[in-house]
Amino acid sequence: MKQRTSKDHNSQMIEGAILEDGKSLSNWDVFTHIQGGQRNGANGDVANDHYRRYLEDIELVQSLGVNAYRFSISWARVLPRGRFGEVNPTGIMFYNKIIDNLLLKGIEPFVTINHNDFPQELEDRYGSWLSPLMQEDFVHFAETCFKNFGDRVKYWITINEPNLFLSHATAAKLYHEHFQPKHGGFIGIVACAFMYEPLTDNEFDKEAASRALAFDLAWIFDPLVFGDYPPEMRRYQGNELPRFSAEERKFIKGSIDFIGINHYSTFYAKDCIHSSCILEGNDHIMGFSYITGERNGVPIGEPTGMDGLYIVPRGMEKIIDYLKKRYHNKPIFVLENGYAQQRQGIAVQDLLHDVKRIEFHKAYLSSLATAIRNGADVRGYFIWTLMDDFEWLNGYSIAFGLYYVDRPTLRRIPKLSAKWYTDFLTNSTITGPTSLQDRVVIIKVLRTHKKEWQQGRTGTTLPVSDSPEGDKFPILTTDLRRETHHLPPPPNGDRVSPTRKNPRIFQICK
């Protein structure tokens, strides 16, 4: 498995063309048109018009010098009616063209099967993920993707920031048994991964920070690696926590080939078991820990353009170290890491001169380099994101991109950060918080592993990569797919979304 430098994107956030060439309405297409459901009435009807401009966008990816690109596949474009209708050949053709053009330019596609959006018909039929029937639809969608794209796509992410263990495991089992032996690829999952530090040096607060990590991150990965929820959760949740049957535990255990994380920030955790916690309606409790971004009125780091996100570079090293130790140094991909920039009321020239974003990535990459030096098996790093886009509930008010998108014309304009990142990858930028030594480590990590990766499930040894450029760069990438950092609500207009229940934390993870 080779290491990559990359970029990210999500289909709902950039494609547009919501009813063209056989695509059906997705849940998010419907939700964004519900009165009062979306900030400033923003929607993804046009988004960045990537559906028509994908070749231009792939040129942008190549110009950065990255060797991988992460994007998601629109379920409603490939299977407009889920398993109740036929495969849309035009949708298949669209993603084939993206994949083929990426590979033609030496860019490895990283594909997320589901990034929050799905055909609205599945919501109308049985409430989508609230019904066990949705698992059958998801596996049908995953199999359709494996069959049509698996001969060229070697890196699969089942679900972005999920709690859908059985759906993931069913798709992973299908891939491991029927597609991995002939395609030689890998499959994993990605979780939103905040780091938590104790609010004080008090032992109870230290325990609270540990609990917060277990309730937030190990809650996802423990079942998929070890077959059960974390013992920290079992201890405090007791019978309230669902129990897997023996068959289910065997089924989900070991169902990921790699760990994928989206890391944006770090918070403090205060104990609420042995200490009193005076809470307000919006305060976030996790693992009986009070989560906050401030201590004595002082933020944990410099604020960004998004409420509740702070710049805390040390959190990158710490979260990687936590995963390394807990999961026996299983391969890790940092699949999202980016700086939130407020767009509203900011002059275009100031948005283009995004020095803060450059400083952010320098500092976080330096922290990542430290984790790698300490032995973490990090295989790739993806910047969130290639270009400004539709950011879920935030609409177009928040910008994460290396490219500015002029909304009236949809013209892509490189920001200062795009030029810096290109220089970084071509070894011509050495100054700043990311030292030469750090960059050497990162570029080495972002390059191809020459070792082979032993696949325990199949017993076969798969080569990491046969890319002719394998020795050149690691996996530093951008996300085309625009997967992200905010856990969106189930967009049906009736239910209160988790995003709105906990705006300080959950709106950060798309």
UniProtKB/TrEMBL annotation:
Which stretches of sequence are listed as region Disordered? 480-502
For biological process, the GO terms are: carbohydrate metabolic process
| This protein's record includes keyword Hydrolase | yes
Instruction: Please tell me whether the keyword Hydrolase is annotated for this protein.
Output: yes
Which GO MF terms does the UniProt record name? beta-glucosidase activity
- Alphabetically list the UniProt keywords: Glycosidase, Hydrolase
Protein family: Belongs to the glycosyl hydrolase 1 family.
Q: What is this protein's record name?
A: Uncharacterized protein
Organism field? Camellia sinensis
